[in-house]
Amino acid sequence: MGYLYNEILHRPLLNGLVFLYNTIAFHDLGLAIVILTILIRIVLFPLFQKSAHYQTKMQRLQPELSRINKTHADNKERQLEATMALYREHGLNPFSGIFLLFVQLPILIALYQIFLNSLTAESLNGLYAFVARPETLNATLFGLINLTKSSMVMVVLAALAQFAQGRMALPARAPGSGESSSERMARRMVFFAPALTIVFLGALPSAVGLYWTVTSIFGVVQQFFINRQITHGKPGNIH
């Protein structure tokens, strides 16, 4: 299993990063990470798109789910039937979110391992024959941020980008309408997740924070178009 993981994910991503560093990134590791992150998001766009659609629609269905729970509070079987009927009506599979997470997780782990190793001489032993081994490694972003060390600037940028993405995914609340416990939890998570990001990234090399920032900014743009599609399209059209 470890061999497959290395040959299918870790090694290709490492070689892709070094190839970009040697060519279009002008020997700037930060720029290479930005380009690689964008390429990964483009390749995995259908998965990320489906995941973002699922999360957005689930949040927008929270008021209806809360009404179902209250209406059938004494009948769990009827509650489950009504919930599944609501999912079917909006083309949602309650297990798809978990599946999409597990599909993306190995890629995230491989990237984190590459960034955490800071591309040391030992880690570069896995390069393919056609990928030139850099004589020196400029492990900075435009010469401004050392990607091998923690950077509070990068940590804050990552947290802000994640906050913006989470904020955009929240449904608009009608004036005078009540807020269910699940809606309150979703709104708290918009603040909790960036705070957790600050704690998590604060002890890691800023290369990880750069990846996190770029992928969150990509997610903000993606979420913008998803919101427009949901707002102007028919609810059942988006799967």
Question: Would you kindly provide a written description of the structure presented here, covering whatever features stand out?
Answer:
With 239 residues, this protein is mainly alpha-helical. Helix content is 68%, strand content 2%. It has nine helices and two strands. The protein has a two-stranded antiparallel sheet. α2 (29-43) packs parallel to α9 (206-232) and α7 runs antiparallel to α8 (181-201). The longest helix is centred in the last third of the chain and has 27 residues, at 206-232. The radius of gyration is 21 Å and the shape is elongated. The chain starts with a helix and ends in a 7-residue tail after the last helix. The model is unreliable at 234-239 (pLDDT under 50).
Summarize the model shown.
By secondary structure, the chain is an all-alpha fold. Helices cover 68% and strands 2% of the residues. It contains 9 helices and 2 strands.
Give the fraction of residues assigned to helices: 55-70%
The SSE string, one letter per element, is HHHHHHEEHHH
| Strand adjacency order, main sheet | 1-2
Question: Average pLDDT value?
Answer: 81
Number of helices: 9
Briefly note the structural class of the backbone.
mainly alpha
Radius of gyration: 21 Å
**Unreliable runs:** 234-239
Number of strands: 2
